[in-house]
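A reminder from the course coordinator: this example appears on the midterm review sheet, so study it carefully.

Given structure:
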């Protein structure tokens, strides 16, 4: 009789243990869902506009909670109806800053200072003068970045569609998903951005 009582207690303990594990798993999934929704996201890089900093197929960790864009940050932008996927670009100038794209001398001047861009592989605007002139005439970039806007460029300027083009233009801060912090995958590209 006592033997049966022991078996019943053992089965109840097993049931309680399974229930506790299931409950713990639900809590973990809820915490992860909140983290992936509000704290960070993983975004897939599609295209070569950010080479050599990011490669097509890289998966980057993006944080957006309480984020304010700063010069030099690599950001992920949800550009509404223009693109079906988020785009990844580098912030060059933020609201209130003066901006001059000096195509002739291949440099960018922000607030009167030529910015240093060690992440650019070759030329700031590429080798093709005709492409630069076409872009210069394509879209009238304001000298002072308006409130709530940022000016962005890709690191691979020859192929990047960015704030120099009328299709993208200045980015509204409300369209910024967040800052790309690191490459999480593939493992051989893992790095802090």
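Designed residues:
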């Amino acid at each position: 009789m006592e033997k049966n009582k022991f078996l019943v207690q053992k089965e109840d303990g097993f049931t309680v243990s399974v229930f506790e594990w299931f409950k713990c798993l639900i809590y973990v999934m809820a915490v992860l869902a909140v983290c992936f929704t509000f704290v960070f996201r993983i975004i897939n890089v599609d295209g070569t506009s950010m080479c050599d900093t990011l490669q097509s197929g890289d998966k980057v960790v993006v944080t957006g909670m309480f984020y304010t864009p700063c010069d030099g940050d690599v950001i992920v932008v949800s550009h509404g109806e223009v693109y079906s996927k988020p785009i990844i670009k580098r912030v060059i100038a933020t609201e209130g800053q003066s901006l001059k794209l000096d195509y002739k001398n291949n440099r960018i001047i922000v607030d009167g200072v030529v910015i240093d861009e060690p992440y650019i592989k070759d030329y700031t605007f590429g080798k093709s003068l005709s492409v630069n002139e076409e872009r210069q005439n394509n879209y009238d970039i304001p000298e002072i970045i308006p409130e709530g806007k940022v000016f962005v460029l890709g690191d691979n300027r020859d192929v990047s569609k960015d704030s120099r083009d009328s299709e993208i233009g200045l980015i509204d801060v409300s369209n910024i998903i967040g800052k790309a912090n690191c490459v999480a995958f593939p493992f051989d590209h893992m790095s802090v951005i």
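DSSP finds two helices and eleven strands in the chain. The chain has a mean pLDDT of 83.
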